[in-house]
Write a structure and sequence with these properties.
By secondary structure, the chain is of the alpha/beta class. It contains 13 helices and 11 strands.
Length: 349
């Protein structure tokens, strides 16, 4: 059952990021009061606080009178390890503490399926142990423990675990696939590419946030996987992008073990943005169960992997035409990450 929207504005942390921006615009378009929080200025038409989520005084002030908080702010895997832990763990504790102090009744916390690590049980259910394998996943898992502390103390904290989400506004490493496709190149894939890698459309994740904001507390105060229900193999999904580019190029298999060793070496030398967990994910099936979010929260995703990829590719093409796809330092997922030494590999495809 969905209850009316909470009184007072909904405060969205990370409001200038991709997901936070979608959530802010969705609430605004529904005519609901919303307030953004980010270290970067956001939409000038939306009230906002420019501050770090680790600043307790600023968060408490921003949350005063709020009906709910949506905590989207986080660090990316490309950040320095110490910063990842600080932003994700300390930031989450600060946000929840400030929400409690300001009397906010509900905080929707956006986590990640990276807390599962590299599970061999697929589809992976929510009760699977947290077994993170990298700095980012460990920080997110620790932040979940913080959430559970506040739940035990009486705060309602719906926790969503999305798979990698994408849609208009997402670049990051996906920009590499889009660039190679648009330039008429084949695209390499480790091994046969027959693994099934589930993703999540940002529109679906945004809708799930909206549902979690309005659901009855006994249903909302739980943990849910959020991901596409319709997804194929990595080869099929990437090929759809190459087909859309119109150059009749193909996904090309490369020997997995030599490629893995090379990419690891490039990563250690800081010549590649492909982080270790992603390398492992590309070699085995990676998808989660969405039965619980359907059954308890009543949420059903509507976008497939290919739909999300192609919508993002079309948006990327529009950005390319306006010169907005230049590589960056990888500080946000809204910017294309530098391909480093991988750019040289384009000559072979």
């Amino acid at each position: 059952m969905v209850t009316p929207a909470p009184p007072g504005p909904t405060v969205v942390t990370g409001a200038s990021g991709m997901l936070g921006g979608f959530v802010v615009r969705r609430l605004r378009d529904e005519g609901l009061p919303v307030h953004g929080v980010d270290v970067r200025p956001g939409d000038p038409g939306i009230p906002a606080t420019v501050a770090d989520v680790r600043d307790r005084a600023a968060m408490t002030a921003a949350f005063a009178g709020a009906g709910a908080v949506v905590h989207c702010a986080a660090a990316l895997p490309s950040y320095a390890p110490q910063e990842i832990g600080s932003v994700i763990v300390d930031g989450t504790r600060t946000v929840l503490t400030a929400a409690r102090d300001a009397g906010v009744p509900r905080v929707v916390h956006v986590s990640t399926t990276a807390v599962y690590g590299l599970p061999t049980r697929v589809p992976t259910p929510e009760e699977h142990p947290r077994e993170p394998v990298d700095t980012y996943g460990r920080a997110k898992a620790t932040a979940e423990e913080v959430v559970e502390e506040f739940r035990a103390a009486g705060l309602c904290v719906p926790m969503l675990r999305p798979k990698t989400f994408l849609g208009p506004g997402r670049m990051g490493l996906f920009a590499m696939l889009f660039e190679w496709a648009e330039e008429g190149r084949h695209f390499p894939i480790l091994g046969r590419g027959d693994v099934r890698i589930q993703m999540c459309a940002v529109e679906d994740l945004t809708e799930c946030v909206r549902v979690a904001l309005g659901a009855d507390e006994d249903v909302a105060n739980d943990t849910y996987n959020v991901a596409a229900a319709d997804f194929g193999t990595l080869r099929e999904d990437f090929q759809a992008v190459l087909d859309a580019a119109g150059h009749r190029r193909r996904v090309v298999s490369v020997p997995a073990r030599p490629a893995l060793l090379t990419l690891r070496a490039l990563r250690k030398a800081r010549l590649s943005p492909v982080y270790d967990r992603l390398l492992h994910k590309l070699l085995a099936d990676s998808y989660v169960s969405t039965d619980k979010v359907r059954r308890r929260l009543g949420f059903t995703p509507t976008h497939s992997n290919q739909d999300a990829l192609l919508r993002t590719f079309r948006w990327w093409r529009e950005q390319r035409e306006t010169g907005r796809t230049r590589p960056s330092t990888g500080r946000t997922s809204r910017e294309p990450w530098s391909q480093g030494a991988l750019r040289v590999a384009k000559a072979f495809f």
